[in-house]
Design a protein that fits this description.
globular; about 200 residues; alpha/beta; 2 domains; Glutaredoxin; single chain; about 35% helix; 5-stranded mixed sheet
């Protein structure tokens, strides 16, 4: 066989090996969500403020612990990006809790009206295998605000809540205005009062 023929065979073998490597090693699985959960971080809003330790209860006037974490659509969310731009409502919830299920649509009703002034971020710390259920819940309830699945509990631990639903109200300076534990059927009326919103 000529040198030219040998060269073609070698090139063909290399191409086949590269294709096999891509299919079985590099290509992401269709069954595994590509979520960079290892990029989750938590810190401070304000550089001069010391890090808040885990399990310290939030008090009015405290700086809200900042975090960087992907939402369920793989968009990176940085809490401190909203400083000077929007008020923030953090909602800690779970798919299995009936009070949370009742509160989410009310928060969506509020968000639909006030989304230019207030950002709503819903965080659940359920196990990794609940990923699809969380996405299905957000879709079924037509949630237009940010939903974060945090199975590591890095955000929940920073905010030290013991029950759900748990809401944290953060002003435009990145400081905690108030918190609320338990289901509030009038939360869409409560939030505008807390932030003194005008329609």
């Amino acid at each position: 066989m000529s040198e030219k023929g040998n060269g073609i065979i070698v090139i063909g073998a290399i191409l086949i090996a590269a294709l096999v490597y891509y299919i079985f090693v590099l290509r992401p699985s269709d069954h595994e969500p590509t979520r960079p959960v290892d990029r989750g971080k938590v810190g401070n809003y304000l550089a001069e403020t010391p890090v808040l330790p885990d399990k310290q209860y939030m008090r009015e006037g405290d700086p809200a612990p900042d975090f960087i974490y992907p939402d369920i659509n793989n968009k990176i969310i940085c809490l401190s990006d909203f400083i000077g731009r929007k008020y923030v409502v953090l909602c800690f919830w779970a798919t299995w809790d009936s009070d949370c299920q009742n509160e989410l649509p009310i928060l969506q009703k509020f968000y639909y009206i006030h989304n230019r002034k207030v950002e709503v971020i819903a965080v659940t710390s359920e196990d990794t295998e609940m990923w699809e259920t969380i996405k299905d819940t957000a879709h079924a309830k037509q949630l237009g605000f940010t939903v974060i699945h945090d199975p590591s509990s890095i955000i929940s631990n920073a905010y030290a809540h013991q029950d759900i639903p748990f809401l944290v109200f953060i002003d435009k300076e990145g400081k905690i205005v108030s918190t609320e534990t338990g289901f509030n059927p009038a939360v869409d009326v409560t939030i505008p009062r807390i932030f003194d919103l005008k329609r």
